Amino acid sequence: MGSYYACSDYISINPEFGTINDFKLLVKQAQTMGFKVIIDWVANHTGWDHIWTIEHPEWYETDESTGDFKRASGMDDIIELDFRNKAMRKAMIEAMKFWIRECDIDGFRCDLAFWVELDFWIEAKAELDKVKELFWLAEADALDSPEYMQVFDAAYTWTWMHRTEEFYKKGFLLHDLLNVLDRYQQAPGINAWFTSNHDENSWNGSEYEKYGDAAKMLAVFSCTWPGIPLIYGGQELPNLKRLWFFEKDTIEWKDNPELHNFYKTLLHAQTTNPALRFNSALHRIHSSGDEKVLGYLRKNQDDEVLVLLNFSPDPIRLELFDHRAEGSFKNIFTGKEVNLDHQRNFILEGWDFLVYIK
Q: pTM above the 0.90 mark?
């Protein structure tokens, strides 16, 4: 199949995936079931065999040393488009409109969004909003590119992803991670949290190579901290292998994915409990284990979710000091109830987690 980021035509379906009618049916059925469908949009570059290389070679940047198309930085399979060319920009926006008009998609996940001039995204969004209100996800980090969030609704949390891996492997202090979270709380847009994706899995290893025993705890964080959780195909297995990037390499599915109920429970809570909406209140809950445990309460009127995460390999006994968490709660994984008016002591195993719903 080759690189899926080396596009050959912006308005065609790869026949290995089916036909345009197949995709229309997929979108329609997904929307009927309550889903929204967004597609990956690779604006910065195309493959060497894109139809524009023949029809409009002037739409590409030129490598002055070779006179040929300019290769993208560090990647030989893709070549750079010239966003100073107004005709190319117009054609790009028309291609994006195609998927809205023909297939009724709900938004775009924009690949390497910060590699593309911001003024193009501003122009594109203004034009596309005339057709349909969309959801815009940037493959960028709001900490590094905050100006892009005037266009995009949400962005990846790359800094958090890298810092948590360093934390697990090098033994940083929890305080260092909390500083990163404070920065994200001040950043514009919605934070999209993740522990794996196509790039990370292929180039840097599975989430278990990166996070080991902390992987599930970090998944709980992704689904309960303010923002949007990103789940990559195969995480519910769990997928322990690296998938080849430039070759067709299928996920090894099995009948009873080990983490199916784990993710189902988390995502059900994330989508149905008002306390876990991205704009609900967040309160840090302090305890005797503050040096190693991150505790927080999500609150939306009468709905509350209490989360305790052990960011260490050590078993910890702790007592909750903060009385903003009170009343009866139920563990979403075990169903066990606890009344915080009488019971404020908890035991967390290494890299363990507790999630309670009031």
A: yes
